[in-house]
Specification:
By secondary structure, the chain is an alpha/beta fold. The protein has one domain: 4-Layer Sandwich (Purple Acid Phosphatase, chain A, domain 2). A 6-stranded mixed sheet has the order 1-7-8-9-11-10, with no helix packed on it. A 6-stranded mixed sheet has the order 4-3-2-12-13-14, covered by helices on one side. Strands 5-6 form a two-stranded antiparallel ribbon. A hairpin with a 7-residue loop joins strand 13 and strand 14. The chain starts with 6 loop residues before the first strand and ends with a strand.
Length: 282
Amino acid sequence: MVQCSLIQKLPSNAIGRDFVIGDLHGCFDLLESLMKAVDFNIDQDRLFAVGDLVDRGPYSLRCLELIEQPWFYSVMGNHEGMMLDYFEVYQQKSYIGSNFDFDESDEIGYLLYGGEWVKDYYHSDNGTMSKEFDHGLELAASLPLLIVVGENDQRFHIVHSELLRPDYSTNDIKVWLDSDIDQWLSSNAIPERIKERFYWGRTLMGGHLDPVTSIQNGLSKTFCGHTIGNNIRQKLSHICLDTGAYSSDDTTAYSLTIYDIKAGNWVSASYCRSEVTYGDFV
């Protein structure tokens, strides 16, 4: 994966609310509906995203452009990682003035995983992508793998998939704790061997650990996505908000979900419903 900043540390929000949004996957219009539903104030509130801003939905570039907004924060998801890997050759060739070949670059199968939208920004006359898309790539490359917000009981984390330890099968402590994360922060370094699980792992939310409790002592609330479900789930202090936004045009079981961290309630929007849905998460 293209190198990105590793950890972003932010203070608690002293003037407004903090929200977390599930995997956007290009569903910018659903996000607009949810922000309206919660009366989001761009001057006071903040919105955190669990990654996978792009692919599969209709407005991927618009979702990437959110990264420039001062009230928006996101971690890198596996889809941003695949996109950056896919265009690594293009960025090198574009530097020396060569044309971009889609077929040559698709060794990882990115187009099959929802990346077909990128072809809309291709200029066939000179074999390059649009300037807007190139800027989107730069924004994606700037995303951290982990966001840490606040201190003590107000602390929470944002990661795309999971903070599961590589030795989880033999260790009584299955996940990384705040103390581990604080060490990474102090050195601004995450061990190379564990990074991939941050944006690809599905062991925890995929049900491969049994039994598992909702809370892990020593780990603050950690909001994640990556694994689709039809509702919010919590395991070992991880709260998964991926409710399948891009699939909500096929079934009412899926939606895009926004969560108010302090209030503990959520709102969801679906392409199959004309109205948003409200609920509490305890």
